[in-house]
Amino acid sequence: MQPKLYLETTIPSYLAARPSLQTVLFTHQHLTALWWERRRRDFTLVVSELVREECGAGDPQLAQRRLELLEGIPVLRPDRAMLEVARELVERGPIPAKAAGDALHVAAATVYGCEYLLTWNCRHIANAEIRRAAARVVARYGYDLPVICTPEELMGGAE
Question: What is the 3-state secondary structure (H, E, C) of 114-159?
Answer without folding.
Answer: CCEEECCCCCCCCCHHHHHHHHHHHHCCCCCCCEEECHHHHCCCCC
